[in-house]
């Protein structure tokens, strides 16, 4: 996904709240000159539109700063929002080149019907839907399609046995279980109907009376 955003260099003396009242959003670009950072502003409306399409720590964005004669690729590293208004308060970008190795978050899409579900009546239990990966900035996948069709009942898909695209490496505990096919649920035995002991006693008493009456006749 190729996205572009234009920013302006921000005067360090400017007040963030004053900028927000003008419809501008304070931002910062880290790493644009290796160790340097640059204070920026961008349209709040454009920032909202950007975040509807971009994902934090995942989407590579073309950032342009015309009044600083800079343009390049960057990741959104942090999105700060107002605690109760849910409005964007601040954005942080991190500049990268297409060949830089970066650590990002990737969403997992589980595809296929597990054999254990299809043939044994099991249940697929997905425990993790997003993992950390390392890859080149220019090769960040929008999501990962993971085939689970070969899983049988009792099988688990772990981080170690993920089949990932070339150049993509999973980060974390290799034994971390992402999805498991559980045993099918057994039907609970039907509960026996219980009769109130008092009712049983009454019925027994009635039965005794009938037998006595028959004997006397």
Task: Give structural attributes.
RNA Polymerase Alpha Subunit, Chain A, domain 2, 2 domains, 217 residues, alpha+beta, Ribosomal Protein L25, Chain P, 14 strands, disordered C terminus, seven-stranded mixed β-sheet, four-stranded mixed β-sheet, 18% helix
Structure write-up:
With 217 residues, this protein is of the alpha+beta class. It has two domains: 3-96, Ribosomal Protein L25, Chain P (Beta Barrel); 102-182, Ribosomal protein L25, C-terminal domain (RNA Polymerase Alpha Subunit, Chain A, domain 2), CATH 2.170.120. Helices cover 18% and strands 41% of the residues. The chain has a seven-stranded mixed β-sheet. The chain has a four-stranded mixed β-sheet with strand order 11-8-10-13, with no helix packed on it. Strands 9-14-12 form a three-stranded antiparallel β-sheet, with no helix packed on it. The longest helix has 20 residues, at 197-216. Mean pLDDT is 86; it is low at 208-217.
Which helices and strands appear, and what pairs or packs with what?
Layout: E1 3-6, E2 8-9, H1 16-21, E3 24-33, E4 36-43, H2 44-53, E5 60-65, E6 70-81, E7 88-96, E8 101-111, H3 115-118, E9 123-126, E10 130-136, E11 143-147, E12 156-158, E13 169-171, E14 177-182, H4 197-216
Parallel strand pairs: 1-5, 3-7, 8-11
Antiparallel strand pairs: 2-4, 3-4, 5-6, 6-7, 8-10, 9-14, 10-13, 12-14
């Amino acid at each position: 996904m190729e996205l572009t955003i234009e920013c302006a260099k921000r005067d360090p003396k400017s007040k963030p709240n004053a900028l927000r009242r003008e419809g501008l959003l304070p931002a910062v670009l880290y790493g644009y000159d290796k160790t340097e950072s640059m204070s920026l502003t961008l349209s709040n409306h454009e920032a909202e539109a950007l975040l509807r399409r971009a994902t934090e720590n995942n989407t590579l964005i073309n950032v342009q700063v015309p009044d600083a004669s800079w343009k390049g690729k960057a990741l959104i590293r942090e999105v700060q929002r107002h605690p109760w208004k849910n409005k964007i308060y601040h954005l942080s970008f991190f500049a990268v080149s297409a060949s830089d190795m970066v650590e990002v978050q990737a969403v997992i899409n589980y595809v296929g019907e597990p054999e254990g579900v299809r043939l044994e009546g099991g249940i697929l239990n997905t425990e993790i839907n997003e993992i950390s990966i390392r890859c080149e900035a220019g090769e960040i996948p929008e999501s990962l399609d993971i085939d689970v069709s070969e899983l049988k009942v009792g099988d688990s898909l772990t981080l170690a046995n993920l089949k990932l695209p070339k150049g993509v490496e999973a980060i974390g505990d290799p034994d971390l279980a992402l999805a498991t096919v559980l045993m099918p649920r057994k039907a609970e035995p039907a509960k026996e109907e219980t009769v109130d002991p008092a009712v049983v006693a009454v019925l027994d008493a009635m039965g005794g009376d009938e037998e006595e009456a028959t004997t006397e006749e």
